[in-house]
Specification:
Chain B: The chain crosses the membrane at residues 38-62, 74-92, 134-154, 160-183, 204-228, 240-261. The structure holds 2 protein chains of 2 kinds. Chain A has 12 helices and 2 strands; from the N terminus they run ααββαααααααααα. Chain A is mainly α. Chain A has one domain. Chain B contains 13 helices and no strands. Chain B has helices at 6-10, 13-31, 35-62, 71-92, 98-104, 107-112, 117-122, 129-147, 155-177, 189-201, 211-220, 228-234, 245-267. The chains are: A mainly alpha, B mainly alpha.
């Protein structure tokens, strides 16, 4: 296999440019993500007021909601449809003939598409910062570790998305699979409601899944709800999930690819 | 290009319904050929609603009310919203394909057939997630209805509210999907934007939002009449007079959808091949 870093880089750049070509994506990403963020802000302001709920006051909830917005923009804005469509329409047969590792190539494309959400995320965060003035990170180190947590979200999001697109080997459509994944991610990541609000057993279920690392982990680190050792532990768990999902994706692909039948061939 | 709605005026209503149901049942036959898709989509709809239920249960374990609305009242809001979206997907999901059909020139085929284009497009697909959405949406409504102590006397209002909600939802989605006649694209981004924001905002009491949002939701894009107004009336948060606004919203949104689609078809210039 002659798959090299140069191939990865080329695929990242192509995918990034392809996404940037559709500038309306920026606007709608911002409108949908920003709109959802504003709605969440209004709800929490109404509920929390000047008090606290499950350890969150209005200050910390503002930061939490903005972190959730960034995570959602990155994960929901990436190009999962391209991967799924190539399986569904049979173009995967062409991909399989190329001298590149299929999973690694899709990962590079996915990372490129995630990077293309950067302008939307930055615009949203700047606007939210000006409108809501959330508190800064608990400590400079917490701020740095939050960034690491966001960086680990790239392989983690790919792992989850890749696994879900592989289901298309058995189905004719991708929409339902995407909805299922996004519904589970929204709820168990804490995007819909912070995990701290949930009963103990439901929190345990959430933490047994990879989803909390999309909102709860970066926000817990940023707000100082965990100390440095706790933050490093969360990052280690996030990294372990990224590796685990990669391996699982590789194993599932080996089985799934046997399903490929193109025009009866 | 062509005023393709004109034949629809000449077509008897009975024929239009017959065409609709024939196409719809053809979709059902096609769906059962692919059981894996059916189950994945139905599960997606069900899981999404179960998680909405869980969201409210978790929220109300921490707060007594949201702007004066209790747990069961909020379940009614979410339930009716799900049922409306589910009915849209079950009976009129094809509207979402408008953009793709415009780009590919698929509207050409519909124009040549002796049936209204909008009926052919609307019935051209069934969103299988609707099964989970409708079943669990109704379950949320029933649970919320009983829990809120609304009683049997208001059931006709509830049934009427569901029917009107389904029509308003489908009509607004159709009108926004028809924007793709002018702004070309595979995805119906305006309709998608509406349902995303509606899904987030309208499961909350409208009173928590600024006045501008309330005015838009009531009178500009009347999504409030889909779930908020009927639920607010049966739970006593709004005067019964507001019920009169629901049929008005139905008529307004249907006329809007038909009008925008008609104008869109006039602007349609095929795919150029």
């Amino acid at each position: 296999m002659s798959h090299s870093i140069a191939v990865d880089r080329a695929l990242v750049v192509i995918s990034f440019k392809r996404r940037l070509a559709y500038k309306s994506h920026w606007f709608f990403g911002l409108a949908i993500g920003g709109g959802s963020m504003l709605i969440a802000m209004v709800m929490w302001q109404n509920l929390i007021g000047s008090g606290t709920l499950s350890g969150y006051d209005w200050d910390s909830m503002r930061a939490y909601t903005i972190i959730g917005f960034v995570a959602a923009t990155m994960v929901f804005g990436a190009a999962d449809w391209i991967m799924a469509d190539r399986i569904l329409d049979g173009h995967i047969a062409v991909d399989l003939t190329k001298p590149v590792d299929f999973q690694r190539a899709r990962a590079a494309e996915y990372v490129g598409s995630m990077l293309s959400t950067f302008p939307t995320a930055v615009m949203g965060v700047v606007a939210a910062w000006l409108l809501f003035q959330p508190p800064g990170p608990a400590t400079p180190l917490a701020g740095l570790l939050t960034v690491v947590s966001f960086l680990l979200m790239f392989p983690l999001a790919f792992g989850l998305t890749y696994l879900s697109t592989l289901v298309c080997f058995w189905t004719k459509r991708y929409l339902g699979i995407m909805w299922l994944r996004e519904a589970l991610l929204s709820f168990f990541s804490g995007l819909m409601i912070p995990l701290a609000f949930m009963p103990g057993w439901l929190q345990a279920v959430a933490w047994a899944l990879p989803f909390p690392h999309f909102t709860t982990t970066p926000s817990a680190i940023y707000l100082g709800r965990v100390d440095t050792a706790g933050a490093l532990g969360l990052l280690a768990a996030e990294a372990a999930w990224a590796v685990g999902l990669w391996v699982l994706g590789w194993l599932v692909f080996r089985t799934a690819v046997k399903k490929v039948t193109v025009h009866g061939g | 290009m062509a005023d393709t709605q004109t034949p629809a005026i000449a077509v008897p209503v009975r024929h239009v319904f017959a065409i609709y149901w024939r196409t719809w049942f053809a979709q059902i036959r096609s769906i059962v050929e692919y059981p894996a898709d059916l189950w994945v989509m139905a599960s997606a709809g069900a899981v999404w609603n179960i998680l909405q239920f869980a969201f409210l249960a978790v929220l109300f374990a921490n707060v007594p009310d949201v702007a004066g609305w209790g747990y069961h009242e909020m379940l009614l809001l979410s339930g009716l919203l799900s049922v409306a979206g589910g009915c849209n997907a079950l009976f009129w999901d094809g509207a979402w394909s408008t953009g793709a059909m415009v780009i590919k020139g698929d509207i050409d085929y519909r124009i040549t057939r002796p049936a209204p284009v909008i009926i052919q497009v609307g019935s051209s697909h069934i969103g299988m997630q609707s099964i989970g959405e409708v079943v669990f949406g109704v379950a949320m409504m029933v649970y919320g209805w009983i829990g809120a102590g609304i009683g049997f006397a208001a059931i006709p209002i509830g049934v009427l509210a569901i029917a009107c909600a389904a029509v308003i939802q489908s009509a607004l989605v159709t009108a926004l999907c028809a924007v793709n006649f002018w702004i070309k694209g595979q995805a119906s981004i305006f309709a998608f934007l509406m349902i995303e924001l509606q899904g987030n905002a309208m499961k909350m009491p409208l009173g928590i939002f600024p006045i501008a949002v309330r005015l838009v939701a009531m009178f500009i894009v009347p999504v409030a009449f889909i779930n908020f107004v009927p639920v607010a009336v049966v739970t006593g948060h709004m005067s019964a007079w507001w019920l009169a606004g629901i049929p008005a919203a139905v008529v307004g949104s249907v006329l809007l959808a038909a009008g925008v689609y008609r104008l869109g078809l006039r602007a349609y210039d095929s795919a150029g091949h």
